[in-house]
Amino acid sequence: MLVFIAIGIAGLVVLLVSMLFGEFLDLLDGALSGTGLGAGLTLFGASGVLALANGWPAGVAYLIAAVAGVVTLTGVQLLVRRFVRSEDGVPSDPAGMTGVARTTITRAGGEVSLDGPYEVEARLATSDVDIPSGAPIRVVAASGPRVRVEPLDNSLHRDPSLHRKD
Asked: What is the pTM of this model?
């Protein structure tokens, strides 16, 4: 029974670490994850302990535990794969979006609200020129969740090649 308890506890630790800190184990191109392995080992240990506690022979307990562990591992892996496929893999590029400065924006930083359909939170922003709070802005580049912006009214005047003096 000690073997089943040790394997079950190890599985529970793997499962909790994977769920709390993200997948640290990803083998065979996603065929085996820490979540799946942890769940399988946990059920292996628990079902083995239950089988032995009910007085069944050790061979039957190992068979029941192995079947329960493999079925659990397979089921969890299928669910994990389905969840991964359903995620939006590529975030939309906010370049060109307009919005409003929520705070004064400088080279050091600031906050903006963008007018995009999936933009529900404020974003951290920087700008080459100071932009006052409440001013309309346009996103010129993105780096992760941060954006570089410019004042909306000056966006066409950034490029000196657009201004020709004839």
From this structure: 0.50
